[in-house]
Every structure is written in structure tokens, then in C-alpha cells.
Amino acid sequence: MKAIEAMRARSVLFLALRLLCIASLAALAGCASSSRPLASQAAAPDEYRHAYLIGPGDSLHISVWRYPDISLNAPVRPDGMLTTPLVEDMQASGKTSTQLARDIEKALAKFIKDPVVTVTVTGFSGPYGEQIRIIGQAVKPQALPYRNGMSLMDVLIAVGGMTPFAAGNRAHLIRNQGGNMQKVDLRLNDLLKDGDLSANLPMRPGDVLVIPQSLF
User: Fold this and answer.
1) Fewest beta carbons less than 10 Å away: which of 15, 52, 92, 169?
2) Which of 148, 168, 179 is nearest to 47 (CA)?
3) What distance in Å separates the CA atoms of residue 165 and residue 160, rounded to the nearest whole number?
4) What's the angle, vertex CA 154, arms to CA 127 and CA 183, rounded to 5?
């Protein structure tokens, strides 16, 4: 019995030492790479950090203080217009909720004294020009509303990852750079299968993620 207990003790000690070595190596690797931040840690350019803009398909809650009869939930039509009581065909797409609220107040001022309007976005799609589109061998190809700080990994999680037929390391982004369309090569296999976070990168409004099918 003593021999068995001694063997168990040595096994536990060996496992503890092994885990300690792994942790030490990970810490050293982190120190060595601290001078070069990962793409996922790089902040998105300030020009892409802005208030949410309303887009076609968004759902809005419009509240008019002291007038519950004209407060309602309303969708933004595919043409970007909004129709509410006393206000017909107002442009909503491309505005912030605050901008739209002020515009509705101006329209209602013809009928109501000193209207106070609050607009809350309850369902998000965003303007077409700012949506991120995923095509090809994604599990759920779709268009996603851009969010401040969104990364490539966030997009892949939202679409459920790649299909078994995807050629992840041949994927690429089609990105608008100052009016010029550019191709950005990606390494999705390295990111998803190997956990290589250096293959992660910030997304930008209007990006198109293309995931081709494997040739084999």
C-alpha cells in the first residue's frame, strides 16, 4: 500500500511540475510577443468608431412624451423611410436615433406644442453600406450590422463558423479603401483550428468576407 501511495504521490508531483512548466512557457511567450500586439488587440481606426446609424429593416420604438396615442413601434421600410401618426414618409435610414427624434419633433410641432420625442432602436440591421456580408462556405452566410470594435472572430462566431468544405486559409476580404476595392488575404483555418490570434483582425463597415470551397 505504501508503494502504491508513493507512486500516486510521484504522479501528482510530475503532473504539477508539467503544468508549471507549461504555464511558465506561456508566460515567456507572452513577454516575448508583448512588443508586437495581436491584430485582435489593435484598435480600429477612429474613423470607424461612430454612433449607430439606422438602416432599412431596423425596428424602432418611438415615444412621444405625454402622447401615448401616437407613441408606437415602427419598422424602417426597405426604402429607408418611416411612417408614424402625423408624420408621413420621413427619411430614417442613415440617421442616429437622436437625429431622427429631433426631425420627428420638428414635424410634430405643426400639431403638438413642444413635442418631446425619444427614438430607441430595438432591432438592428444598419445601413446597407455599413453591413458586413459573409458569402461562400460559412455555416450561415448572411449580412451583419457593423459594430464598433467588431473583429473577424466576432463575425465567424455570428455565422456559426465554416462548413467542412471551406478552404479557410484561402479566404479573403473585399474592402473599400478610399473608393478603391482591395483584397485582404485571411487565414481562417489558423484562427479557428489552431487558435492563432495573430490571424484575427478588426473589421470595417462594408467589408465582404469571401470563404471559398476547398478544391479537394
Assistant:
1) 15
2) 148
3) 14
4) 70
- Strands of the 59-64 sheet, one edge to the other: 72-75, 59-64, 117-123
For residues 41 and 116, is the Cβ–Cβ distance under 8 A?
Answer: no
Residue 71 is given by DSSP the state -
Q: Which amino acid is present at 80? A: G
Per-residue cell: 159 = 455565422
CA-nearest of 157, 135, 131 to 144 is 131
Distance CA 206, CA 175 (A): 7
In 48-160, alpha helices (H): 97-108, 152-158
CA 122-126-132 angle, 5° bins: 130
Encode the chain (216 residues) as per-residue pLDDT tens digits.
Answer: 544 455 444 543 443 444 344 344 444 444 434 333 344 343 444 456 678 999 999 999 999 999 999 999 999 999 999 999 999 899 999 999 999 999 999 999 999 999 999 999 999 999 999 999 999 999 999 999 999 999 999 999 999 999 999 999 999 999 998 889 999 999 999 999 999 999 999 999 999 999 999 986
What lies within 8 Å, CB to CB, of 155 at 6+ separation is 132, 134, 144, 203, 209
Mind listing the domains of the chain with CATH numbers? 59-123 (3.30.1950.10), 129-211 (3.10.560.10)
Q: Is 96 left (phi over 0), alpha (psi -120 to 50) or beta?
A: beta
